[in-house]
């Protein structure tokens, strides 16, 4: 078994521990009413986007998500929340070192990371460490979902259903037809747009697969033109009215969440990415051209 597949399998238990950690870390995390910028790179960026939508929908305050390299320095926030598994990503550290400084004021920074002995712990004002979710593999799975589970719990969500759905997702057989599919498009709505982006990234990283991702209602505005027999469209959450019929006319396969919590549905996509990598003779633990952290000179 690959490290990646082993780490995927531990997610339900990691989420339960994240719910406990959310209570302990409550003071360090964004407080109701704060204007918050959430930053990350790669997978962490997609988790940031999902959290930003959830926090605003919960009425906790304006929440924007940015790639660390694209943070708008002139914009003021009450807090910056940085997501970084490794704690060594150059773009994140550079932004934290600047402390979100605008107009002579310094914005408080909280970092969520897997290793408290890395540079981010020394540079961020507050640090939430999730060592039980750290990973050996280059491809992120459990740390990303555990960080989002922590933040969902902090917003007051009960993760019980998500955990049970995740356990079920781990037992579900991987569909051989999907392993053999030529192309994937992942769709989401609201907070699940970030999950759709992340599912597509997992397919590219682990299996080198041709994948795209879009908001579900944008799919008809051009992207549906690549749907065809032997290709698949995966929708996180509810399928917009009429979209299933539109996809059926293209001959592409439609993959539904089947009522699963969307974060648990992401586990199905993670497992499929590993299965496709193995079918192609690739090592999901050593994706081409990638390292565990991007550290620039």
Overview of this protein structure:
The protein has 297 residues and is an alpha/beta fold. Helix content is 41%, strand content 14%. The chain is built from eleven helices and nine strands. The protein has helices spanning 3-9, 11-24, 43-57, 90-98, 119-123, 142-154, 160-171, 176-179, 192-207, 243-250, 262-279; strands at residues 36-40, 63-67, 79-83, 109-113, 126-129, 183-188, 211-215, 231-235, 253-255. It is globular and about 55 Å long.
Quickly count the helices: 11
**What is the typical, i.e. mean, pLDDT?**
94
- Report how far apart the termini are: 35 Å
Poorly predicted sequence stretches spanning 5 or more consecutive residues: 100-104
Radius of gyration, rounded? 19 Å
Q: What series of H and E elements makes up the topology?
A: HHEHEEHEHEHHHEHEEHEH
Strand order of the largest sheet: 2-1-3-4-5
Shape, per Cα inertia axes: globular
Q: What is the helix content?
A: 40-55%
Please outline the major beta sheet: 5 strands, parallel
Fraction of residues in β-strands: 5-15%
Multimerization status: single chain
Q: How many strand elements?
A: 9
Structural class: alpha/beta
């Amino acid at each position: 078994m690959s490290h990646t597949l082993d780490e995927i399998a531990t997610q339900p238990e990691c989420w339960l521990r994240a719910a406990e950690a959310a209570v302990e870390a409550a003071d360090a995390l964004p407080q109701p009413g704060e204007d918050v910028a959430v930053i990350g790179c790669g997978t962490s960026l997609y988790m940031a986007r999902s959290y930003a939508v959830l926090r605003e929908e919960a009425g906790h305050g304006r929440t924007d998500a940015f790639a660390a390299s694209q943070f708008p320095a002139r914009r003021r926030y009450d807090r910056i929340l940085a997501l970084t598994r490794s704690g060594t990503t150059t773009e994140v550290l550079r932004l934290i070192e600047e402390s979100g400084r605008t107009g002579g004021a310094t914005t408080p920074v909280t970092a969520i990371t897997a290793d408290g002995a890395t540079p981010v712990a020394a540079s961020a004002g507050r640090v939430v460490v999730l060592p039980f979710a750290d990973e050996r593999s280059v491809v992120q799975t459990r740390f990303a979902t555990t960080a989002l589970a922590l933040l969902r719990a902090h917003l007051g969500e009960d993760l019980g259903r998500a955990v049970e759905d995740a356990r079920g997702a781990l037992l579900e057989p991987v569909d051989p037809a999907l392993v053999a599919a030529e192309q994937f498009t992942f769709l989401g709505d609201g907070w699940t747009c970030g999950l759709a982006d992340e599912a597509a990234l997992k397919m590219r990283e682990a299996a080198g697969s041709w994948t795209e991702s879009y908001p579900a209602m944008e799919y008809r505005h051009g992207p549906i033109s690549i749907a065809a027999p032997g290709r698949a469209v995966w929708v996180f959450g509810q399928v917009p009215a009429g979209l299933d019929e539109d996809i059926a006319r293209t001959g592409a396969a439609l993959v539904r969440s089947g009522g699963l919590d969307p974060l648990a549905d992401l586990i199905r996509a993670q497992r499929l990415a590993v299965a496709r990598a193995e079918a192609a003779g690739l090592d999901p633990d050593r994706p081409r051209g990638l390292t565990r952290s991007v550290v620039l000179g």
